[in-house]
Amino acid sequence: MSSKIRLGILGGGGDSLIGVLHRIASAMYDKYQIVGGVFNPVWEENIGFANKIGLPTNRIYKDFDTLIEEEIKLPVNERMQVVSILTPNFLHFPMAKKLLENGFNVICEKPMTTTYEEAKILNQTLKMAQTVFAVTYTYTGYPMIRQMREMIKNGELGKIQKVDAQYYQGWINPVIHDKEKRSTTWRLNPEKSGISCCIGDIGTHAFDMLEYVSGVKIESVLADLNYLYADNKMDIDGTVLLRCSNNVKGVICTSQIATGEENSFIVKIYGDKAGLKWEQENPNYLYLMEDGKPFRVLKPGHAYNSDLSLEGTKLPPGHPEGIFDSMGNIYKGVAKAINKEPYNNGEFPTMVDGVRGMSFIEKAVESHQKGNVWVTIENVN
User: Fold this and answer.
1) 270-309, pLDDT tens digit by residue?
2) Distance (Å, rounded) from C-alpha 240 to C-alpha 308?
3) Following CA atoms 175, 111, 216, 297 in sequence, which dihedral angle do they give, to the nearest 10 degrees?
4) One Pfam match, by short name (predicted)?
5) pTM of the prediction?
């Protein structure tokens, strides 16, 4: 029998970009084998997609509950070891909770749940289950983001004094200005997405990233969100001021109506000795800025990079690596945890990251609704 980790997938069928991303990422290091799942709630499309990607159909299930029921009947050395949740947001919590309660490891898309309360319940469930849980804040897998994290941790920027993240997209423009389209899109439906669209979808990436690379904790936020139309219940643009640990200040600017922008995610961290800047659309370049010194560009694959960066680098210097590689690095880290191998705690985002992300979403919305006031992010262990 194959020694690969047996992986099940929920959602991600058809032309889903996130489905392609996870399947390629899971195959990247030869650590996983997809053995089954539920790709679509419509049986014909579900089984048709399994046939299309060449999966045996004996473990393609009609629904999630059947998957759990049938998998736990199998011997431990045959059942799925980990299940990836790629469904719309409102399904994340019930699926993850039931998987944990039945002893499965879980890889979950973000936002982890639709409410902070659900996130806290899931955290307690994980403590009881003692399995592995990862949230796919994908961009933490980039080698130069990991290099950024290690340089800051090693004090190369000195005392951190400002953090800044900008995440601009323009994809929702064709939807938001059409009353019928915006009322039928699940991203703008609170029952399926939770209380936030822009902050929940991309703002949570920025929040997690700033904490991941800088090492500071965001303690309170003041948000000003834009809904654009009175009948639209979900934010599609927003600015959030940040107060962080160690008296660090910062800002997160997010938008899905930044006309012409594709996926412009920019992360900047400034210390009293130097600053670092990274752009997702040019992910192989990490810019090092120091007063009175030439501007420097660091690139992946070179010996001057940290072990964590080099561990996530698959190609020699000069060969571009992208988002598939970033997600692949997260899957690789989860595989180490499942196999009880040593791993760096920066190799994949955890339950705590997911819970804090949910707290950020709710507090940003609360800050806006209370008239743009400061509200506190709760600590979680």
Assistant:
1) 999 999 999 999 999 999 999 999 999 999 999 999 999 9
2) 30
3) -60
4) GFO_IDH_MocA_C3
5) 0.89
